[in-house]
Design a protein that fits this description.
With 146 residues, this protein is α+β, with helices and mostly antiparallel strands. The chain has three helices and six strands, in the order ααββαββββ. The chain has a six-stranded antiparallel beta sheet. A hairpin with a 2-residue loop joins strand 4 and strand 5. The longest helix has 16 residues.
Length: 146
């Protein structure tokens, strides 16, 4: 007897299996704290080796955090989905020791394309950046093996 998975079970499976192979996220100390269909939350503590010449978190690493949350959100349906582009606006610096949280959520999903927004905040809930990602789904290919 085959039991169908719920959308949440699918999102959990994708999170577990994607993270098992996500060397970039692991290398940066990221943790995927939540994945639900169309949404994901990822955290990262700013370490000394993440600071630029101004002693603040490198903007590319903040963007990487947001891009990671975006990836987990848009793959949460277990359809292989990749970024087709994104934009990011940096609003405040991340500092050593800050715990940054990226919360990505689906704005629109139609056919093969999607739009996802992501807010990045620190542990004081101060907004560090906003990110908008555009996704492209490759129909018929799962994000992870079921």
């Amino acid at each position: 007897m085959t039991t169908e998975r719920t959308p949440q079970q699918i999102a959990d499976l994708v999170r577990e299996r994607m993270f098992a192979n996500d060397r970039a996220a692991k290398g940066l100390g990221m943790e995927v704290t939540e994945t639900v269909p169309g949404k994901a939350t990822v955290t990262m503590t700013v370490r000394q080796n993440m600071l630029n010449g101004h002693d603040i978190c490198h903007g590319g690493l903040i963007t990487t955090l947001a891009d990671t949350a975006f990836a987990y959100a848009c793959n949460s349906y277990n359809e292989l989905t990749v970024a087709s582009g994104f934009s990011v606006d940096l609003m405040a610096p991340g500092r050593e020791g800050d715990v940054l949280t990226a919360r990505a959520f689906e704005v629109s999903k139609a056919g093969r394309t999607g739009v996802y927004d992501c807010d990045i905040t620190n542990q004081r809930n101060e907004r560090i950046a906003v990110f908008r990602g555009r996704s492209y789904t490759i129909k018929g290919k799962p994000a992870v093996a079921a």
